[in-house]
Amino acid sequence: MRLALTFATLVMLALNSMAYAASPSVQVNFIQPEKFRDASLRSNGYERGADEQVMKALRSYLESLGTRYLTAGQTLRIDIRDIDLAGRYEPWQTNANSVRFMRDITWPSIDLHYTLQQQGQIVKQADVRVDDKFYLQRPGRVGTSDQLYSEKAMLNDWFRNLVKP
């Protein structure tokens, strides 16, 4: 009886670890964030605390896209090399120094390198600039309180196209 119980426990553990190893995952790294063009929700350029907030939100969002779009056994490594958020702060605007102005020429862009693997074999890898020059025309942008709406919508489109068969 004890031997059968031990064997059953070992089988369950092995199956559980195989299922975990085969589950899709996304690993996001930020390469030299202090050199990012504009990754702060409080000012243009680099601001340590605000940048960390942006990086944490983007990492979490990309991981959620992995659970949505990647299949079992796929892993995606993303090295983000530069971030330029949508819009700009315009300090010369009186009474609006904490407002990010969205203009046609201030679209979001993210420079990254990615490696997509299936069962440990590289399927795709490349250096890309993900951008959205028409971010102001996106449906759903009006009325949202998400400060990273444009970047998340842009990354969603890129991710979906990346894993499309």
What are the defining features of this structure?
about 160 residues; alpha+beta; single chain
Descriptive account of the structure:
Helices cover 35% and strands 25% of the residues. It is α+β, with helices and mostly antiparallel strands and 165 residues long. The longest helix is centred in the middle third of the chain and has 22 residues, at 48-69. The protein is elongated and about 55 Å long.
What is the topological layout?
Elements: H1 2-22, E1 25-30, H2 48-69, E2 74-84, E3 88-89, E4 100-101, E5 109-118, E6 121-131, H3 149-163
Parallel strand pairs: 1-2
Antiparallel strand pairs: 2-5, 3-4, 5-6
Helix pairs in contact: 2-3
**Residue fraction in strands:** 25-35%
- Ends apart, CA distance between termini: 49 Å
Largest sheet: number of strands, sense, barrel closure: 4 strands, mixed
Number of helices: 3
Principal-axes geometry comes out as: elongated
- Strand line-up of the largest beta sheet: 1-2-5-6
Number of extended strands: 6
The secondary-structure class comes to: alpha+beta
Rg, Å, rounded: 20 Å
Please estimate the helix content: 25-40%
Series of secondary-structure elements, N-terminal to C-terminal: HEHEEEEEH
- Mean pLDDT comes to 83
Unreliable stretches (pLDDT < 50, length at least 5) are 13-21
